[in-house]
Batch of 4 targets.
Target 1
Amino acid sequence: MNRVVVTGLGCITPIGNTVADFRNSLFSGTTGIAPFPPYPEAPLREAHDKTQGLRFTQSAAVKDFDPRQHLDSGIVVATDRTTHFAIVAARQAAAESQLTNHYAPDKIAIIVGCACGGRQAEETETAKLYTRDARVHPLTVVRTMASAGASNISIDQKITGPALNISTACSSATHAIGLAFQMVRSGMVHAAIAGGHEAPLTFGFLRAWDSMRVVSPTQCRPFSANRDGMTLGEGAAMLTLETLESAQARNAKIYAEIVGFGASADASHITQPHAEGAASAMRQALADATVTTEGACGALEDVGYISAHGTGTQANDTTEAAAIHQFFGDLAPHIPISSTKSLHGHSIGASGALEALATVLAIHEGLLPANTGVTEIDPAIQLDVILGSPRKATPKLALSNSLAFGGLNAVLALRPTK
């Protein structure tokens, strides 16, 4: 099997529209969570004017992003905001790694996660239909389909290999990166662009989540003693993957190595997480890491950092902590852990990609991000949650967890390149 490394990064996020800006916000603890309304566009601003009745007043929206500065007008018109994010983030990653200059287009895969599709186009056109019986825009179908991001990255980069969208709620991007990793490792493709994108902050989406009573009326505080829910977000992050051998041969910059992937289903409840499911996904990721062709790893004691799903809800944080204790046993209280959702919010299908990006940067720089905005940890958690400032450390192995509604779990195992 091939060893698989990350050689390019790209992002459009609430804490930065370049990797450099994302990195600075990540390690300085600068949050992207802010009050409504996040959008300058008139239809969306009007929708957000209706949010006074919501229990929450904040979101983590992408700022200072004008698609017309990056994309041709025809592409802007034919695509939704989520696809704009996807194309631009993929461009950044592809430009850094120069994949398309070194691999045949049919040997590069595009595997991305998007759970919500083109929410803005869908709600705008549906409102016209149901309130005025007006004709919907002729491009509504291609704007709203969840796979539009994968298709448009393919068109933009002239890549003809497998192009797939994964929709598994909040684990979509992590499943996508894991599948891309397996495809490159097996030799099915030589390289891949993988990640996730989402732009779901519409009036209908916010009202739907408000009805579930899991969104924080204040701000997301993962693992905090006084946590009161999640903060909804948006954005995109993309990673380029290729074999270690090829990357070294062309002297490419290598950020980190992906060594394992685990996935599981709780088979328990559609919204209530189950500790055994999350523990199973972590177990599989570490077992998978032991098949690395050189320098095998995967022992429990190798794990030196966990990038937690950490949504800030009572149910998720308690269950994720229980899963870590269940799997790691006596080692659990000594493993550094943090969630970055207090910075960039919960971007649903894209969240695993933003967190994988943060984990890759942590490994590359030997600096573990802090669990921002929390001063007192829930005593029931009993984990080494990083507070205050980032912690200097170079973990032998790191895990990035995604635990989705529907009991769909995905975990990546990453390490510094040896």
Note: The two ends are 16 Å apart (CA to CA).
Target 2
Amino acid sequence: MTLIRNAFRRLHYPVDIIAQCVRWYLAYSLSLRNLEEMMAERGITVDHSTLHRWIIRLVPLLDKAFRRHKRAVGRRWRMDETYIRVRGQWKYLYRAVDTAGQTIDFLLTATRDAAAALGFFRKAIRHHDEPEVVTIDKSGVNMVALTTLNAGKPEEETITVRQSKYLNNLVEQDHRNIKRRIRSMMGFKSFRRAQTVLAGVELIHMIRKGQCHHPAGDGLSSAEQFYCWLSEKQAAQFSSSSIL
């Protein structure tokens, strides 16, 4: 698997074991110690700190590979932020979905203000172009960010902004899938590590929604698609070599 070999100078474990451990951690409600015990039951001795290092090394490469094959999203966005605890303090995960529930983008920030919201919108627009309509709740800082984006544009090119708590239920419900997964992680100890792990969780969530279009991935399950991106060249025949 090309991405795994690029991520590590030396490989002390088979690439299929590394790939499976990373996917299981991101996809299921497991702690690192849970995963360590599961591997031990299969005769594989791997420390939880090693598992963590695999995840931190691989997720940025996976995210980059996924974005190259991400399906186009709609231009009517629902945007909201939710709380994430990092080192005992609340941080803010900005997220947006389109009207079909597809994830637009996400950004973990230390503050909840206009600058943070503007940073999120600029990241999302950089990857997906400008939306036609953005629906937000009654948050004033999100409105300030969108007003900043619209400043100086001709009226026909401005982003239409709607403030409606009930129309934003779609993205609020989507938050639950992310919060459910991180609940078993027992909190993040580092802001940068939180950013990386959340990117991996979001990636798995988008795979399950069918948001990736890979030339070799048609008809594959979400697990098979994940291993497909690790190779980047062909779909991994993982089912024949998975750990039983």
Note: DSSP finds nine helices and five strands in the chain.
Target 3
Amino acid sequence: MTLFIYNILISLTGLLLRIVALFDKKIKLFVNGRKTVFAVLRQQIAPEDKVIWFHTASLGEFEQGLPVMEKVKTEFPDHKILVTFFSPSGYEVKKHSGAADIITYLPLDTRRNAKKFLDLVHPELAVFVKYEFWPNYLHLLKKGSIQTILISAIFRRDQMFFKSYGGFMRRSLQTFARFFVQDERSGELLHNIGIARVTVSGDTRLDRVTEILHRDNTLDFMEPFHNGNLCFVAGSTWPEDEEILVDFINNTTGEVKFVLAPHNIKPAHNQALKKSIRKKSVLYSERQGKDLREYEVLIVDTIGILTKIYSYADMAYVGGGMGTTGLHNILEPAVFGIPVIIGKNYGKFKEANELVALQGVLPVSGKDQFHKTLLQLTNNKEFRKETGQINAAYIKKNRGAVIQILEFIRTLL
């Protein structure tokens, strides 16, 4: 594929998305959200402003970039921090975040959009998080001699950069002043195509989750609900996960409290989930006036408190891996030094592969294996403790990416 063909495809994609937006709510957010980007930038960025631009694809990449954003904002207070999102699922959740001065969508990667965007933003530094390689933006960044780095990057052999037909994408990589990659394999892939500006720094999320340990994680409703019992927390669950969780809850006895935090917090979903559970259950939104000590299952139908809830857990399950939606963040519970159970589809997630190999994260393929694994953790205190310690040690050993990235940024600004 050539850059010429790419530009035609991007333009056609823009037209197609406007049509699809008439019928799809998420695509409608994607399209409509971009209509005001240039007006917002024109209003909030003056020609004399010094700007540092972070680009993240969605929510997960934002979380990876956040510890770097926070350090940069503190160390360079005279600069404005701009964060752009590609996906509505990231922008809609974080559009009011205090981590940045300006948060917008990134316009589609047409030549015209890229030029207009960079003319308005005129960044001194561009920081791309993990991936998102947009050739027109990258070409103009290089043309304008704007320092650009990629952080928490991870590369796979099957990506276009490493194919015979991926020349125009390989050229896009030449934009970056430095690649901060998560693992040695990514570094080797870049070296094999002639890119030597690589630092194997690890995943910035490890620094991010380490900070969780040092904040106040107290939740007033969790104290009475926990009430000294073993506590099992299942976070970011999807229907495929909830099927095996509900089966276990309904068919086991014992003094274990269960917290379910579904990915889908719509009332209809959570009411149906509550109805499917035969043990005494309560929704977070209905907890007021109730003696939570009397309940065995708490369903969290809100967002923003899951990481604190994990601090009360003796064991955790992280959703997304039982189906095909993608495994959610296993590091958030792992940092508390507890065992983590996941579904069978975790192969694309580096930290999951490594922690499964170390046996701190335990994959299950279905109801029977989940039942066996959770009973083992529940009944064997020593096994539970040793498994959790593996996770805590892994995070402690592999943190430190943010320090390396910040040291490099200091040389650029």
Note: The longest strand covers residues 230-237.
Target 4
Amino acid sequence: MIEPAPLAGLWCATLTPLAASGAIDHDRLAVHVQDLIGRGVDGIVLFGTTGEGPSFSVSERTAALDALLATGVPAARLAVGAGCPALPDTAALVRHALASGCPRCLVLPPYFWKGVTDDGLFAWYSTLIEAVCNPALRLYLYHIPQLSAVAVSPALLARLDTAYPGVVAGVKDSGGDFTHTLALIEAAPDLQILTGDEQQLPDLMRVGGAGAICGAANLFPELMAALLTSGADVAARTRIRAFCRIIATYPFVPALKSVVESLCGDRVWRSVRPPLSPLPEPDATALLAELRSAGLLGER
């Protein structure tokens, strides 16, 4: 396998379209991914938070990756969200990604048990790496404690980096605390630190961060690309702040899907996997009105 490029630049945490049956809609996913790549994103991350990853089984996720690759989407433009509470399920997803030519895997810490120590998390990630036993793996830890309730600390990152150089490749920090992001960079300056917080992207690039893996790129890849430089213009920063302020008043994934539904005129896009619920029609109407008033929907 050719040495994979590190995750850097603008990566879209893609939404996952669902058919009327509730199954993953492989055809619509391929169209969406190809459109985003055509509009300039550096790559796509499948089955993260925005992609409702924890709501899908191992077999659903592997089948979706197989179907996407079969449409001609280059494996080099994909990374795979592979975090599950059960370590064997995570290992199965990572092995499948590697066998499919997608060595870059974004892996949540095990998110059911609370109050776990860094020693316990080190043992979990260490066991995963050694069970997969493939030096081609490029593992990105996923810090999103507001949902997982399990943090990726700078000390844990440094310890894993020392123990598994090359294999441990970086972190997606979606915690929203830029002080924590800076501590991750200081703890492991050789690794790729990316943000999931759209508003923090220019600041991250200014201090040597790698880029973003974000949900807003599903809607506004051109706007997000404009934030990739530390000197991002004021207008771009103002627009993304407006988007984040508006979207924060709605459930994130149903809201994003509702906007995609409106933009492409395809009602199938509003579907989400339970326990999430589609955005109610009055809320969808209000959301679209707010985005139009902020001048954001002209991006597409």
Note: The domain at 9-230 is CATH 3.20.20.70 (TIM Barrel).
